[in-house]
Write a structure and sequence with these properties.
There is one protein chain. The mean pLDDT is 92. Helix 2 packs across helix 3 and helix 6 packs antiparallel against helix 8. It is globular, with a radius of gyration of 21 Å. It is built from nine helices and 14 strands. It has three domains: 54 residues, Arc Repressor Mutant, subunit A, CATH 1.10.10.10; 200 residues, BirA Bifunctional Protein, domain 2 (2-Layer Sandwich); 48 residues, SH3 type barrels. Helices cover 29% and strands 26% of the residues. The protein has a seven-stranded mixed sheet with strand order 3-4-5-9-8-7-6, sandwiched between helices. A five-stranded antiparallel sheet has the order 13-12-11-10-14, with no helix packed on it. It is an alpha+beta fold. The structure holds biotin. Biotin (BTN) binds next to helix 5, strand 5, strand 8 and strand 9. The site of biotin has 20 residues, from helix 5, strand 5, strand 8 and strand 9.
Length: 319
Amino acid sequence: MQSLLRLLQDGQFHSGEELGAAVGVSRAAIWKRLQALEAEFDLQIHKVRGRGYRLEAPLSLLDSDSLCASSIYPITLLQQVDSTNAQAMRHLASGAVPPFLIIAEQQTAGRGRRGRSWASPFGENLYYSLVLRVSGGMRQLEGLSLVVGLALLQALRDAGVNEAGLKWPNDLLVGGRKIAGILLELSGDPADVCHVVIGIGVNINMRVTRLGEVIDQPWTSLRQVVGEQVDRNAFVASLNRQLERYLHLHQAEGFAALREQWEASHLWQGRAVVLAAGAQAIHGRVLGVDDTGALRLDIDGQEKVFSGGELSLRLHDDS
Ligand code: BTN
């Protein structure tokens, strides 16, 4: 199946004869195989008499060899999984030893922050979970998700998305639209030895939402920003490099050393915001973040600090 997709990923027509010869089946059997691919990965393949078959749009498929060559961490590349974070947790539970990386071409139950789902169509975006062992107690976790945001921001800029910025705690936006998100999940005791799953989702080549799929926030993708299809293997290589660099800095010097850099890329620095904490809405002006990555707000002339994965920020209307 994968070899068929590799041939078709250029979005050009390929004859039944060529496809059949490449995978060693008869011309007649090819259409059946292509229909199975359509159904399994929710793809659209056009069949035109006299010309052959082509994908509705070209794909940049991930390539295991190229991914492994660009990573210091062992990588498992899956075609389809419920969630790379969930898979990472299962690997841990079955005794896999971190660090390791799980990447998938498609998630059927991608998880976002605060119980949301994460749209994860086949072959278009990046679904990436890096698992690390954390032994230095809470200090090693402080500001970690913000540092991952910085690494991801650099990878986006390296790919030509110069206008990307951060929104506390770890959203990546372009022109008010979400281009990438980060979901950290812990396993074990954070005060002692634990494991952290760093889940990263990046909208790379997504152009439209699939039938029946609803994304409940404005979104964009690298492709929409740079105006052409992006090589996903090259993007992963760049993200791997930036993560290695930033995670090393964070481990050696803590978030304090990166705090200024983070604030310089914070899109809502100085803005009037509303912080949603459960049912509570807290109004304030963003001062920045502290050395642990917590949000500092000016509330009626007093500085207050907020942290926690369930918090979310929106702009106050007159900001
Ligand atoms: C957010 O809501 O902003 C966080 C989105 C995180 C999505 C990524 S995709 C890879 C990893 N696996 C998941 O199920 N979620 C994260």
